[in-house]
């Protein structure tokens, strides 16, 4: 069994930065890819960033150049570094794991709130 726990959310001013962490318990090596999604109030959940087991990354157009997904040296932690934050980045951010590499996420964290406001 794989469990994901996010941390690092909070309130930040526009233009600021936050780093989200996702700690994986169980075997991260069973996961073909890790990703961050987000869901803003009244909107559908959207994929923000993906990191495959081979190190390939992909980003939503809305965050390219501002967000970076990476894996920690211990390999059981995935980060989302968010820079130049905008009010429209306000959402609950979820970490997710894709076991089979099919784009369907099998494991989800509980979410962490990010609020960008002055």
How would you characterize the overall build of this protein?
The protein has 118 residues and is mainly beta. It has no helices and 11 strands. The chain has strands at 3-7, 10-12, 18-25, 33-39, 46-52, 57-59, 67-71, 77-82, 91-98, 107-108, 112-116. The strands form 2 sheets. Strands 2, 4, 5, 6, 9, 10 and 11 form a 7-stranded mixed sheet that branches. The protein has a 4-stranded antiparallel sheet with strand order 1-3-8-7, with no helix packed on it. Strand 4 (33-39) and strand 5 form a beta hairpin. It is globular, with a radius of gyration of 13 Å.
Strand percentage lies at: over 45%
Contiguous helical run count: 0
Helix content: under 10%
Q: Tell me the structural class.
A: mainly beta
Number of strands: 11
Largest sheet: 7 strands, mixed
SSE pattern? EEEEEEEEEEE
Average pLDDT taken over every residue: 94
Unreliably modeled segments: none
Q: Alpha-carbon distance between the termini?
A: 41 Å
Rounded to an integer in angstroms, the radius of gyration calculated over CA atoms is: 13 Å
Task: Indicate the overall shape.
Answer: globular
Record keyword descriptors for this entry.
118 residues; mainly beta; seven-stranded mixed β-sheet; four-stranded antiparallel β-sheet; globular
Secondary-structure map with pairings?
Elements: E1 3-7, E2 10-12, E3 18-25, E4 33-39, E5 46-52, E6 57-59, E7 67-71, E8 77-82, E9 91-98, E10 107-108, E11 112-116
Parallel strand pairs: 2-11
Antiparallel strand pairs: 1-3, 3-8, 4-5, 4-9, 5-6, 7-8, 9-10, 9-11
């Amino acid at each position: 069994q794989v469990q994901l726990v996010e941390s690092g959310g909070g309130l930040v001013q526009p233009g600021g930065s936050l780093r989200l962490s996702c700690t994986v318990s169980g075997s991260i090596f069973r996961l073909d890819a890790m990703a961050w999604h987000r869901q803003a109030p009244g909107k559908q959940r959207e994929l923000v960033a993906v990191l495959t087991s081979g190190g390939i990354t992909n980003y939503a157009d809305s965050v390219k150049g501002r967000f970076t997904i990476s894996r920690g040296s211990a390999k059981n932690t995935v980060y989302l570094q968010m820079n130049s934050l905008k009010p429209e980045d306000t959402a609950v951010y979820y970490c997710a794991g894709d076991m089979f590499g099919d784009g369907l996420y099998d494991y989800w964290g509980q979410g962490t709130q990010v609020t960008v406001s002055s």
